[in-house]
Amino acid sequence: MIAKARQQFPHLQLIQTDIYQFDLEEPVDVIFSNAALHWVGNENNAAEATDGGFMARALKPGGRFVVEFGGKGNVITGGPASIANIGLPWYIPSIAEYTTVLESHGIELTMALLFDRPAILEGGEEELRDWLDMFGNKFFEKMSKDEI
């Protein structure tokens, strides 16, 4: 994604960095994140990593914070299992929750949308296994292969 953006916008300085190593020498006009913040695990203190505090400090006054990530309700439902009500290893806040966090750090929310987009699995056990193989490794990282 960033390589394509650099090709299309060579006059812009684009930075790709680890959220836990996010530190800029000079404030920037825009912080953009696509489909990343919800993967920050609770065990890594998602509230600290995604709370907007260090991002607010990295923005110039009047700068823009533009993010897209999974929101409340964007979890597996239906099919052979539902994981909506168990402790999830991801950060998936509601608009109100994230607005409060951002505003506590001086980031003014001007627009937020939450698309109702749960991961509905109707393909039985095989589809659930595929989903868990792709996204659910945090559920099983402390188990041996025999336990899984």
Annotation keywords:
alpha/beta; two-stranded parallel sheet; 6 helices
Description of the structure:
The structure is a single chain. The protein is α/β, with parallel strands linked by helices and 148 residues long. It contains six helices and four strands; from the N terminus they run αβααββαβαα. A two-stranded parallel ribbon has the order 1-2. Helix 4 links the parallel strand 3 (76-77) and strand 4. The radius of gyration is 18 Å and the shape is globular. 11% of the residues are buried.
- Please provide the ordered H/E string of secondary-structure elements: HEHHEEHEHH
Q: Helices and strands: which structural class?
A: alpha/beta
| Largest sheet composition | 2 strands, parallel
Poorly predicted sequence stretches spanning 5 or more consecutive residues: 43-47
Spatial arrangement of strands, main beta sheet: 1-2
Which descriptor suits the 3D outline?
Answer: globular
Termini Cα gap: 34 Å
Number of helices: 6
